[in-house]
Amino acid sequence: MEPSPFELPADTVQRIASELRCHPADERVALRLDEEDELRHFREHFYIPKMQDLPPIDLSLVNKDENAIYFMGNSLGLQPKMVKTYLEEELDKWAKMGGYGHEVGKRPWITGDETIVGLMNDIVGANEKEIGLMNGLTVNLHLLLLSFFKPTPKRYKILLEAKAFPSDHYAIESQLQLHGLPIEESMRIIKPREGEETLRIEDILEVIDKEGDSIAVILFSGLHFYTGQLFNIPAITKAGQAKGCFVGFDLAHAVGNVELHLHDWGVDFACWCSYKYLNAGAGGLAGAFIHEKHAYTVKPALVGWFGHELSTRFKMDNKLQLIPGVNGFRISNPPILLVCSLHASLEIFRQATMKALRRKSILLTGYLEYMIKHYYSKDKADTRKPIVSIITPSRIEERGCQLTLTFSAPMTYVFQNLEKRGVVVSIPLASLPGLSVACIVGVNFGFCGLFTAACYFTSISQGG
Predict the structure, then answer these.
(1) What is the mean pLDDT, run by run of 10 residues, along the chain of 464 residues?
(2) pLDDT at position 3, please?
C-alpha cells in the first residue's frame, strides 16, 4: 500500500483503478487498499462498537452485528483491548497486597508514570527527561504558563490563533487576569483573512515579526480542532524565538495524529491530552513537554511532593530537592488506573510507529477527500444536488487525518442520517455563513481506519 514519496493520494487511487480496470470510486479500489494496508491487523487490538450498541441507531437500516463506522478519533479514540487486562492487574495487586503495590510489579504505583514515559518519546519527538505524564491538559497548560508567562511592561502579550479551543482561550484569559492585565490589549488573536477559514503562515510570521517585541508567549494549537489545519510548528517556533518570545503548543489534536519533533524543532513547551488519537480513554492522563534547554532555568511556580527527587523524597524533611525540567512540575502521585489505559495504547503505537501511521493517514485522508469531491462537488447541471465543501487545507503538509466538512443540506438532517446508519462523527456547534454547521471526520480513528469505511461514508444517500 505504500505510495511513493512523489505520488499523491489521488494518483494512487487512479493508478489502482487503472490496474483493476474500474472507476476510481469503485468499491474494488477501497478493497484493494484495505488488502494492502500494512496496519490492518491493528484493528484486532481495539474494541469497535457494534451497530446494535449505538444509541441513535436505526436497526432497520443496518446489520446489527456489524462494526460501526467510527470517524471520531479526534474526540475520543477507541478502547485498546489490553486496557482491561492492565486494569485488572493493578486491581488484583491492590486487593492482594495493599500498600506494597507502591514498590512492586511492572507498574509500581510510585513510579507508574515513569515506567511508560519512554513510550511517548517517538510520538512527540523528545527525550524521556523532557516529557511528563500528569494531570489533565488544561491543568498542565496552566502550570506551564505560570512559569513561561512572565509579563513585563514592554513584553506582556500572549499570541494565539482565532477560534482556539475554548479551554485554551479561558486559560489564557485567566492567566492575564491573574497578572492584572487588560484582556483586549494583552490577548493578541490572529484571524484568517476575509473570506478564508484557515490562517496563512506568512500572516502568522508577519504578526510575530511586527509585534514580537511586545509578545511574551506564543501559544498555538499544533492542529486546529475545528478546521483541521496543521500549523507549521518549526517555522512559528523559530520566528517567535528570534523575537525573544517563548513558544508553546497545545497538541491535543496533533499528538498521535501527525509526526512531531519537539526537541529538534526547539519548541519551548507543549502539552496534550491522551483520550483522542492516543486512545487512553475519557479523561486520560495528559502530557507535558519542556525542552531540556530550560531544565535548570525554568522552574515550576507551584510545587508538590512528586516534583522532589525520588532518592530523597521519603526523607520527609521538607527540604525540596526539585527534579530539573518537566518532572519537577509533577505535583501529585500518578493515578495508576489512568496509567494502565495509556500504557495499553502506547504499546500499540510503539509497534505501529508514527511514521507508518502517518503514511497511511495521508493516503486514507486523501482517499476520503477524493471520494467527497467525486460525489458531492458542485454540479451546474444538477442544482438540487447536495454539496459538501472541505474546510481543511488540501495540502498534505498542512493537515493531519481530520477533514472538516460543510453541507448545503441542513446539518441536523445529515448528522441524523449518518448516526442512524452507525457512522460516528463529531459535530461542532459553530455555524458558518451560508452553510450548515460542520461535520468533523477523523479518518484514521486509532489505527482502525478502513478505506471501505471511507467509501461507505460517501455512498450514504441524502434521501435516506
Answers:
(1) 66 96 95 93 93 94 93 91 98 97 95 97 98 98 98 98 94 97 97 95 98 98 95 98 98 96 98 96 97 98 96 94 97 97 97 94 92 85 81 95 86 85 76 48 59 77 41
(2) 45
CB 239 within 8 A of CB 209: yes
Q: Is 386 left (phi over 0), alpha (psi -120 to 50) or beta?
A: beta
To which H or E segment does residue 30 belong? helix 27-35
Strand, coil or helix: 405: strand
For residue 13, the Cα-to-chain-centroid distance in whole angstroms is 27
Kindly state the cell numbers that stand for 89. Answer: 492487574
The span from the CA of 142 to the CA of 81, in Å, is: 33
User: pTM for this structure?
Assistant: 0.93
Q: Which residues make up each annotated binding site for pyridoxal 5'-phosphate? A: 137-138, 165-168, 221, 250, 253, 275, 305, 333
With the C-alpha atoms ordered 336, 333, 322, 271, is the resulting torsion angle positive or negative?
A: positive
Distances (CA, A) of 277 to 23, 286, 356, 369: 32, 12, 15, 20
Distance between CA atoms of residues 44 and 38, nearest Å: 13
Residue 70 pairs in a beta bridge with 424
- Model confidence pLDDT, tens digit, residues 209-219: 999 999 999 99
Rounded Cα gap, residues 228 and 399, in angstroms: 6
Within 102-180, residue ranges assigned H as helices are 112-116, 121-124, 137-148, 166-178
